[in-house]
Amino acid sequence: MSAPFDVRILGATDTTTLRAMPSMFGGAFDDRPTCESRQPDDAYLGRLLASPGFVAIAALAGTNVAGGLAGYVLPKFEQARSEFYIYDLTVAEAHRRRGVATALIERLKRHAAEHGVDVGFVQADPGDDAAIALYTKLGVREDVLHFDIAPGSGAY
Predict the structure, then answer these.
(1) Which whole number is the average pLDDT over 95-122?
(2) Which CATH code is given to the segment(s) 5-138?
């Protein structure tokens, strides 16, 4: 990745940086209302960032978030091991095709290895050719089906 970017794991005091990420995700996923309308307060975000089960990584161009990755460590029950689920990963349009997404994943891989995570996984939607190409370059593809199951009664 070129010198103008600083890729780092966010800590408990990085709530301002974390707060900037949903706007970027909302723009990339064309879903700003969902990503921006009900952001939690700084106390919640600080607790989330301090949790060992959540990881946020930002690619910063100066003070601006150029790219971000958010995900969760999933402790397994069948073996004493854990997996990492990349929940969101995107790069602001102005910073795409510069190695930002690859740098985010490479930083996650180092972090996961340092914390004993055995494997990571991510999903991509059919038609998201850029994401599929990136993940194919970095990992092994599995074709699976995804189902949303709402808690309680009624449909999702």
Answers:
(1) 92
(2) 3.40.630.30
